[in-house]
């Protein structure tokens, strides 16, 4: 049986419309052979959690450049926990001050990628951390 | 175009070169040497002229910076109106010569600070302005009759402008002499930055309403700053930035004329905004080509007769997307090079980015250093002593010609599609930009393009101090809105919102109705909701 492709939801939470990073990551993951769903702009954490559930994704990649990460990131993690989706790996990329990183990781975000991160590193991280399906 | 005669004109290389091909940051090929052969069919009188004369390749003023330096206009805004008012007054005290307001995302999207979608965003990437009451605080003790203000606001631009005009009136400033700029460029929002509310047609109507209102009441105010900046930040090439911006401008001019305005009635108030990216000569060529294309477009395509309609005035900002989180002090150097390109390209005003902006909004220290960068270029470098110092360079003139021809091809292609709205609906510019952005990212990952401190010369470093936005901002804003709702006349607000919605259903100019609504302290969110009710909202087809 062919191996199930890693399924990734790339999401833009909040009001920010700067989608250059999200689009590059979506394309790089797709080029690496993964199944990528892009939510489009202006998604609430509720919309992202429910899209992740419906699409049965292994990984959620969030892109936030507006400074709202400390509110939106942990809120999404709470929603995923409430849905019993703790096994979904959540990544965050964007303009994130270093001092905020420990708090975001504590909230359950697996990794934070800053400006300058290479798509190869992100692809490798997703491969290593996508949840394992039985 | 690399003809054999040009290759013959250049001496043969005596040693091997570092790379098989040399390209600009946009991927444009650069030859080893430029010689008179590259300009064989080029007529200096026709292509250059003198500064201050058609086709304005060399700049729009005869004396350029010998007459007056560019306006040093640092974009600032964060937290509440009080916080930003204090930063403005500090910047003016440090020798800044114009103001530039950054609004937060809820404001940019037409939501009040207490809206559910504003959660986590209030005061974060700009100042929160939900009503005239906030605008009054924002410009407290800043004389709008003397200071020029640029406001980076697009979809709700007409509403924010109405608030600004109300504050000016309250201060006793004369609208006829009031000077400043609204960004108000909705087309590039659909193309690149994506801060749109309504569909293109009603959005364009609002833009033309500001042109018409401005032509009558505020002749010194620029109702629009047609922007390539965000197109470039979204990953476009220099040629795409120029072409899409100029094609947007053509769209606005066509619609102004369709409204019944004479081209020379509103074209002198059109202003532009370009990126100042890393590739020094490509950027200079871009600004020079921009002025030349605009001159020909206004004169030949639109029959403009007033020289002020022909001369392109622009603001420049250094490239935010070029800043690195790694080794952030390197950003001071990048910004200096980019700013120098904008100055040598003849900009009218300039914003220099701060070293810490790949981490957060700038600290006061970083913002001051960015301003000092401009002051050093202005007063110490000597590049201001003569107009268009690179004019006549074989390389710069060749590159200017190539950028111009690349941009003209795009403009013709979009003309053939039926204009920019039609092109946007087909996702044409969006797709071109996404392609360019992905190509560049791949070039960086293959190390064909080196970014110092990122994909080469990397090192471990200590974190820098960054600006923290006080989490109490949202609470203070919500408190202020509660107070506003209690103090204003709810009946009056509802009456004026109904009148506005009714007018929106027809075809009349909405500026007077917006002005009435803001004067009664209707909030930004209420006004935008009234218009959402009539115009609907836009959602894009997301392409990846």
Q: Which structural class should the secondary elements of chain A be placed in? A: alpha/beta
Q: Class of chain B in CATH?
A: Alpha Beta
Q: Helix and strand string of chain A, N-terminal first?
A: EHEHEHEHEH
Give the count of structural domains of chain B.
Answer: 1
Strand tally of chain B is 10
Radius of gyration of chain B: 23 Å
Which fold name is given in CATH as the topology of chain B?
TIM Barrel
Number of helices of chain B: 22
Oligomer: heterodimer
Helix content of chain A: 40-55%
CATH architectural group of chain B: Alpha-Beta Barrel
Overall geometry of chain A = globular
| Strand content range of chain A | 15-25%
Task: Report the average pLDDT across residues of chain B.
Answer: 95
Decide which structural class fits the backbone of chain B: alpha/beta
**What overall geometry of chain B do the principal axes of the alpha carbons give?**
globular
Summarize the structure.
The complex is a heterodimer of chains A (134) and B (544). With 134 residues, chain A is an alpha/beta fold.
Describe it:
- The complex is a heterodimer of chains A (134) and B (544).
- With 134 residues, chain A is α/β, with parallel strands linked by helices.
- Chain A has a domain at 41-128: 3-Layer(aba) Sandwich (Rossmann fold), CATH 3.40.50.280.
- Helix content of chain A is 40%, strand content 18%.
- Chain A has helices spanning 20-31, 45-55, 69-82, 101-106, 119-129; strands spanning 7-11, 35-38, 59-64, 89-94, 111-113.
- In chain A, strands 2-1-3-4-5 form a 5-stranded parallel β-sheet, with helices on both faces.
- In chain A, helix 1 (20-31) crosses helix 5 (119-129) and helix 2 packs across helix 3 (69-82).
- Chain A starts with 6 loop residues before the first strand and ends in a 5-residue tail after the last helix.
- Chain B is α/β, with parallel strands linked by helices.
- Chain B has a single domain, classed as TIM Barrel (Alpha-Beta Barrel).
- In chain B, 48% of the residues lie in helices and 7% in strands.
- Chain B has helices spanning 4-9, 44-47, 81-93, 105-108, 132-138, 157-171, 187-193, 200-217, 229-233, 238-258, 263-266, 280-301, 307-310, 330-344, 364-379, 394-417, 420-425, 428-445, 473-487, 490-505, 511-519, 524-535; strands spanning 71-72, 75-76, 99-102, 149-152, 180-182, 221-222, 224-227, 270-276, 314-318, 349-351.
- In chain B, strands 1-10-9-8-7 form a 5-stranded parallel β-sheet. Chain B has a 5-stranded parallel β-sheet with strand order 2-3-4-5-6, covered by helices on one side.
- The model of chain B is unreliable at 1-8 (pLDDT under 50).
- Chain A binds chain B through residues 10, 14-20, 22-24, 26-28, 30, 36, 38-42, 44, 66-72, 95-99, 114-116, 118-120, and chain B through 105-106, 108-109, 111, 117-121, 124-125, 189, 193-195, 233-235, 321, 323-326, 358-361, 434, 437-438, 441, 444-445, 451, 454-455, 463, 466, 468-469, 539-540, 542-544.
